[in-house]
Write a structure and sequence with these properties.
Bound molecules: 2'-deoxycytidine-5'-monophosphate
Shape: globular
CATH architecture of the largest domain: 3-Layer(aba) Sandwich
Low-confidence stretches: none
Helix content: 40-55%
Distance between the termini: 14 Å
Oligomer: single chain
CATH topology of the largest domain: Rossmann fold
Radius of gyration: 17 Å
Number of helices: 9
């Protein structure tokens, strides 16, 4: 069974998806980590993130996989926490915007999900482009204010909630209007508004729907 979880930046997709996978004993596929891994490879080889051909070559030559703890590896080598660093974070949007890179990474996501059987897949475009046939789809939303508050609580440095909110609104605008695989809600996704809900409550709601699911077809 494939459960796909999608939504804008900062809506809690990743934490919720991991929680759902753990509760159900499913695998977990972090699709953002795969774009981050390609971006790390691009930077390590000294390529420019805007160079589509170089980015595609790196994507093609990188065997992306996950170890038994669901941590990503490139050509068998662990790359956490390097893929979470500032340089990768700053450049991953550019690298993941190349259609050629997306084709390669999406194909790999489909293989990895199939291998796992029961899996929770998390990331923008997973309900629309990667797994339009997912058994269950969830689109998590939260107001920009709430997402800014959560992000501020995670950050070490003091940054005002207003500044973070402006940044989130700018990212929403970019993510929903970009040419390739823009963030959009699948028609058959269940929308969960996470404003005022804790992670556990959102996980409970998704698990409840999975367990009460009437099989398709
Ligand atoms: O979820 P994240 O921050 O780890 O994602 C990293 C980047 O990859 C982010 O800029 C969005 C992009 N991404 C994407 O384009 N498609 C996905 N399915 C997942 C992430």
């Amino acid at each position: 069974m494939i459960i796909a979880i999608d939504g804008p930046a900062g809506a809690g997709k990743s934490t919720v998806a991991k929680g759902v996978a753990k509760r159900l004993g499913f695998g977990f596929l972090d699709t953002g980590a795969m774009y981050r891994a390609v971006t790390l490879g691009v930077i390590q080889r000294g390529h420019m993130p805007l160079d589509a051909e170089a980015c595609c070559a790196v994507a093609r030559e990188s065997e992306l996989a996950f170890d038994s703890s669901d941590r990503i590896t490139i050509n068998g080598l662990a790359c956490e926490p390097d893929i979470r660093g500032e340089t990768v974070t700053r450049n991953v949007s550019a690298v993941s915007a190349h259609p050629g890179v997306r084709d390669i990474v999406v194909a790999r996501q489909r293989v990895l999900a199939r291998e796992r059987g029961d899996v929770v897949v998390e990331g923008r475009d997973t309900t629309t482009v990667v797994f339009p046939e997912a058994d269950l789809k969830f689109f998590l939303i939260a107001s920009p204010r709430e997402r800014a508050r959560r992000r501020a609580a995670q950050l070490d440095q003091i940054e005002s909630v207003d500044d973070i909110q402006r940044d989130i609104e700018r990212r929403d605008q970019l993510d929903t209007t970009r040419a390739c695989a823009p963030l959009r809600q699948a028609e058959d996704a269940t929308v969960i508004d996470t404003d005022g809900l804790g992670v556990e409550e959102v996980v409970n709601e998704i698990v409840r729907q999975v367990e009460g699911r009437v099989p398709r077809g």
